[in-house]
TBC1 domain family member 21 (Terrapene triunguis), 312 residues
Amino acid sequence: METISPHVSVSLIKSLSSLLVSKMPIDKAEWEGYFDESGHLVKSRDFISSNILDRGLDPAVRSEAWKFLTGYYSWRSSHDERLTIDSMRRKSYEALCNMYDKIQPLLETEHRDFMQVRSFINSDLQRLYLRDAQGYAIVDKKQLEKILLLSYVCNTEAEYQQGFHEMLLLFQLLVEKEHEVYWLFQFFLQKTEHSCVVNIGVGKNLIMLKAVIAFMDPIFAKHLEGKSRVVQSLFPWFCLFFQQVFKSFDDVWRLWEVFLMGMPCRNFQVIVAYTMLQSVRDQILRENMGGDDILMVSHNRGLLPSGCCLVP
């Protein structure tokens, strides 16, 4: 099993703290300067990744840059090749939708799991409420439901998890076209499957988190051990890749793009979780908190992205 060496944990924690420090992000003019006239990158992937890690992306750049980070586009593609790729993605998505429409009646009558998942999705979406500054609803719930169901049908290993609708929402806000939303979400799940997919990576992350806590903070580790399965109760952080923890969508996008680059280390999400625990460590010890209380106090420091309200 792959692990994080505790000896490098301190420097990685410092890397995390620097992520959300305000620096001038890569803006549209600089991003366009990374390409030649044919649309090929003239800067290396390592150069771009290092700059994204250090400075982040301007919102005007993020929608295109994420297509490279997720694998939607090849880093070696030209402008014309990207047009072809986008057309191929759109046609593939339309074919998947047609397939789904044909088998949906069979799924509804023969597969109890499908009906249960659809019920979970509908319940989650009913609580999702997002409006712009003028008060207009900006969430296309029908599109979210369609993509979540299609994703469930097409991915046997990536079971639907409560909160996936909020993850998908960030992709809906990131790009305009439905097929782009679908494929970016799929590529993100593939890139992070060893971290956030329950059947594959969440258990591994929890084991590594427990080991890091034991090495870095034995007193805290002893408290958590006495509360029984506290670390295991933190699985939502990994399942949803911390989407519910940070105060703004920009902070979530900023963190996710670092995960997508695999920097500064492959299992950086474990250090993120450890740092989050440390931010409320003293309160946890002082108030003798257990698992659910730890989740609550961590989230209360910035549970929902600004502008997002889950209506009970």
Notes: The first strand starts at residue 128 and ends at 130. The two ends are 40 Å apart (CA to CA).
